[in-house]
Amino acid sequence: MATPLKRVRGLGAAHHGTETFWRQRLTAVANVPLVIFLIWFLVEHVGASYEKMKECLSNPIVAVLMLALIWSAAIHMRIGLREIIEDYLHNKLCKVSSLILVTFFAALVGIASTLAILKITLGS
Amino acid sequence: MSNKLEAERPLSPHLQIYRPMLTMMMSIAHRISGAALAVGFALLTWWLVAVSMGPGAYDCVQSFFGSLVGRALLFMFTWALIHHMLGGIRHLIWDTGAGLDKTTIEIFAWATIVGSTALTILVWVLGYCRMGGL
Question: How far apart are the first and last CA of chain B?
Answer without folding.
Answer: 63
